User: What shape does this take?
Amino acid sequence: MNGPEFGNLLVAYRSLELRVEALMSAACSPFCKVCPTPCCRIAICREALESPFLLAVHESEKSFDSKQGYLGATGCTLGAGRPPVCHAFICGRILSRQADDQRRFALECLGDLIGYLGKQVWMKRHLVEALSDGDLLNSNLTTFKARLATGAEALGILESYFSSDRHLEQEEIMVLGAIRKPGFVLSAT
Ligand code: SF4
Ligand code: SF4
Assistant: This one.
């Protein structure tokens, strides 16, 4: 249904999402595994079932359960194709246990990264808002490519940061700032 170029960009999106999920899982699963009030909601899962874009990302390989949505015994059964909010929501319990503000900033950037990739790609709106496969064909591929490139650069920084005991450099913070909501303020010092 998608043109080959869009298909290639979907492959890149999927790959970035799986890498984001690996990092996020390492940071959050110690908390989520013992969480008394898990935050997954079937209404959110439903977005992954109904959004043509998210369906194209996960290719409908996982079955949607009418009671549990995509939530399985050990967590979400979707690898890629989750609604961006599933990555973006990081609860206060997790944020408050981060070592410092920079760590919190890095984690929030990681959470925002997937949502950033689809912003303003379809009719100046987010790709998850597209209503049909035909809408997806009208995506702005130049914007999508640029977002994937910035997202990949930001994710490389975050992978390096989370795998070592170091601080972010100012230039790295500027790259990460591009994917945060407007108005972020963080200095390397
Ligand atoms: S993100 Fe927070 S509220 Fe949601 S499952 Fe994990 S620990 Fe629980
Ligand atoms: S993470 Fe998965 S199971 Fe949880 S709300 Fe999102 S799609 Fe549903």
